[in-house]
Amino acid sequence: MVTLNRISEPPVSSTTLRIALAQLNLFVGDVAGNTQRVIDTAAEARALGADLVMFPELTLCGYPPEDLLFHNGLRRQVAAALERVRTETRGIAVMVGYPEYQAEDIYNSAALIRDGEVLANYRKQELPNYSVFDEKRYFQPGQASCIVEIKGIRIALLICEDIWRPGPARAARALGAQLLCVINGSPYSLHYQQRREEVARARARETGLPVVYLNLLGGQDELVFDGASFVMDGTGQVAQRFKAFEEGLFMVNIDLTGERALPQAAALAPLPSEEASVYDALVLGVRDYVGKHGFPGVVIGLSGGVDSALTLALAVDALGAERVRAVMMPSRYTSQMSLEDAQGQADLLGVRYDVIPIETLFATVLEALEGVFAGRPPDTTEENVQARCRGLLLMAISNKTRRMLLTTGNKSEISVGYSTLYGDMAGGFAPIKDCSKLLVYRLAKYRNTIAAAIPVRVIEREPSAELRANQKDSDSLPPYEILDPILELFIEDDLSVDEIAAKGFDRATVGRVLDMVKRNEYKRRQAPPGIRISDRAFGRDWRYPITSGYSPRAIVPGGPAR
């Protein structure tokens, strides 16, 4: 089946179709607010002379709505919202994403509305069910192409995953489409923009059709949507690319020459460096998580180390110095260097800075436990007590001031459990949770290229938790130059001990690291959410059992270790 509608318009001399791309930061569940943005933005696009305005995937409810989709209240709100868009937008065609309810079925759909009439409705055909996506839990797949003619150009309506598979675009081309318009909710990860463009290029070259690709913007829990919308001609050349991590209403001109739709070349935003794109994603993720939850600001435990230093810089860039509060909580093991560097960074960034020593609290806890611990030598227990003293104080400040507590743990530490449950893991949000230690150093150096924000000594010093005398991270962990590549090969590539060792790593070290990852799943399940910037972060796309008899070091009889 194919839906083909022609939008009747007054005669015009131009053969150019003007499309406005509404790269908006929407709010999951705020149906009324999202709908008002659609109505206001459509009016703005009309004033700019647009014939069609495109909005992101599941515009009205936000993406991803998850189990909100099952709620009858959302169903009623979406129906009312679609009616508002139908009755309150005029003089412009509006392509808007929404969850379509039909009896017991739900579809991920896009409606094409003009002057009070729903002229076409398209149901997403390809439903992603991998990584952070689980759309088959919610939606039924559509079965039909949908082609709409506007100003003489036949446009195929597509939604996100439809462009990642060849079938929908090819079917639309076979039915006479001249242009592919794709609305998306495609989350950020490192290098993902290049992959999006490679996929769009493949579809363009297969069909000979231009692609107009609109992506969502904004932070939603663990996910960040980076925008970076673009237009590609039928040969696979990028004709326009718009800035990532910024809202905007971007104009695209499509000329009709004979039977061919040809995008006009215009501004081409450059692809940012790895460090720049990750940093911008983290800033946007922090800003939206704090802002959409309505917190007046954040509090951070500032230790003098690079992790908390980077987290503080991110928070200031996301929220402004006036909404950020830093607290140094020295113990008997805190170095003078840490005290100086924490104070220096707080002064540099202009945040409120408090010093609350934990020695008295730490000593009181040890005294209370003296009888229970009698005859047992000091070990990591006493180290963890210090971390939990700090967690207690920070959570108290968070409760009293209503500021969200940001944790400062990185992916390397969280992977192997080099963190304290109810201590430094306590908090509401973990901005650098998906950043390896080596990436943390790269981001810290990058931030200083913009303006001085992190003391150089913080970046150059050997890392230490400072929970015992002369402690270094390397006492407990392999060097990060070894640890981080092993973790990436296991977490993101699912390689076995032997497969990782075959890449030049010591097998015993690999087995030890993977054992630590397995043992600490219970900690990760209790950690706060954090921003996903890799292909596989701890959270939505990491689902390992806590209770498991699996051994990464096991040798399979008659075969390689897995």
UniProtKB/TrEMBL annotation:
Pathway: Cofactor biosynthesis; NAD(+) biosynthesis; NAD(+) from deamido-NAD(+) (L-Gln route): step 1/1. ATP binds at G301, L302, S303, G304, G305, V306, D307, S308, T408. Gene3D superfamilies: Carbon-nitrogen hydrolase (3.60.110.10), HUPs (3.40.50.620). L-glutamine binds at Y130, S186. The keyword ATP-binding applies. Keywords: ATP-binding, Ligase, NAD, Nucleotide-binding. Catalyzes the ATP-dependent amidation of deamido-NAD to form NAD. Uses L-glutamine as a nitrogen source. This is Glutamine-dependent NAD(+) synthetase.
